[in-house]
Amino acid sequence: MNQTVAGETIADLAFRAAEAYGDRAAARWQREPDRWETMTYRELAEQVDAFGAGLIDLGLDVGDRVAVLAGTRPEWSVAHLAIVAAGGVHVSVYPTNAPDECAWVVGNSEARGIVCENAAQVAKIAAVRDRLPALEWVVVLDGTADGAVPAVEIRRRGRARGAEELRRRSLAVDPADPYVFMYTSGTTGPPKGCVLTHANYRAMMHSDNELQELEGSASGKDVVLYLYLPLAHAFALLFQLNTFDHGGAIAYWGGDTARIITEVLQTHPTHLPSVPRVFEKIYSLAVGSKPDAERERILAAAKLGVRVRDMDAAGETVRDEVRTQFDAADTVLFQPVRDLFGGNLDLAVTGAAPIAREILEFFYGCGVPLMEGFGMTETSTGATVNTVKHHRFGTVGRPLPGVQARLADDGELLLKGANIFHGYYKMQDESFGAVADGWLRTGDLAAIDEDGYVSIIGRKKDIIVTSGGKNLTPANLENDLKLSPWISQAIMYGDRRPYPVVLVTLDPERVLPWAAERGLPDSIAELSTHPEVRTLVQQAVDAANAKLAPPEQVKKFAIAGRELSQEDGELTPTMKIKRKVVAANFASVFDGMYEQG
């Protein structure tokens, strides 16, 4: 990824890329399973021209906010690039949002228009339209819907109008102009609209280019990015922009979570950004399904892989007998793990939530460079990252080029750089998210070692203080529990209580087949109370507790009778847990663990 068409704004990115990359593939997607279609960079620019000119014909003015309510698909990218090329400001709405959540984002941003994926998404807006006085028009991408202008009509109007004004506007955008209103995931309250400028995101793209030059990480391969994450999230947006900037191809997720691994195998990506839950599931597939003896053999080999790969990276000599062991393991044990990622991966990046160190080390040892980073919507996605050449597992890496990090007196991580946002639209928060003298207060407690590697201790608002005054950080225990193939989520609880307890959810993809083999019930609700399942979970709890001091250990656990869900407000679109909602929804379960004595 060494070639780039980097400019000073995002507004002309599609047109720069078309000039540089022409008939190279920009996007791949499936209209139906296993049939992939391709769009070139030239075709991408033509689509942006038509859609952007059509929006201008519809009445889009420079500076207008336009929301997009759609899933991860090429049409999202076209709409996004068209809006900003026309001088508009993109407003991201998660496609999983309920009507009330859509009303909050569209209303707070004062969006003048919205682009919806289909009739079902249009219906969400129709249900709350009376609460959106600034909203004037709705566009629907697929088919038709009452009260919406079909995308085919927008493109027809755009082609009839011509792209001259669109191209002029794209060149007139200033780096300081707002680029996106990106709404936080709302784990602690209503989502806040981060105002991010063209310069903010260009700073991140320049930082990525500089980091690649410093690391010498360009492989020379044609870049293929498999994109599963919602493009409404800052993490996915940055990877999309970097891929287009460097002339890579995006393989868009088809919309079925059960087919993620299948699609990865079909597209052979070089780059895979995702959230921990995806990597946790692949780890479970690679390790958790194996008999105990074989699992221990794979894990031991992966530790050898870590040692040899680190020695190779440092230019150290590996003894012949160790190299022989490594080569044998690489063929028999590591290659099948790499094949789960399509066999062509140069880099996988995890962020948005903590991940267990054991998972990072396992994949790295097997030759899958899974690197953890840290960032926020307020930092235009990124702030720190581990790299293949410079990593320290258990940390979130070192600050990106152009980013500074230091600690406040209470241990809160502070960040400074050209990527720091310009405040929340129509909202003020004097603590988390506040910027003073250019330093962003992240809300995370952290440590920074002598080599500059940052370790996140936990969210300030997530710290549990027991009735005995003990401060507990939930993340370590929760991550250890999720190493179990049977557990999908874990939530420690215990604020102002005498001791901590934990609620876990079962992974249906592992538990249900296991139960069927034993003639046990075929529902999560029934299995959650079954003695054999409780024994499995107890073993995981005992293993996690063994790593903690006695006051930090959970004394009891409960198994939820269902998975956590976005529909019940318990998870964000990037699978982060909304602790207050979980505590409220499962209040009787938590109370019951203390009433048992």
UniProtKB/TrEMBL annotation:
What keywords does the record list, in alphabetical order? Fatty acid metabolism, Ligase, Lipid metabolism
Gene3D superfamilies under this entry? N-terminal domain of ligase-like
List GO molecular-function terms, semicolon-separated. long-chain fatty acid-CoA ligase activity
Is the keyword Ligase assigned to this protein?
yes
Top-level taxon of the source organism: Bacteria
Q: Which InterPro entries match?
A: AMP-binding_CS, AMP-dep_synth/lig_dom, ANL_N_sf
Q: Where is the AMP-dependent synthetase/ligase domain?
A: 16-425
Task: Look up the record and report any one GO term of the cellular component aspect.
Answer: membrane
Family of this protein:
Belongs to the ATP-dependent AMP-binding enzyme family.
Q: What is this protein called?
A: Acyl-CoA synthetase
What lineage, starting at the top, does this entry show?
Answer: Bacteria, Bacillati, Actinomycetota, Actinomycetes, Mycobacteriales
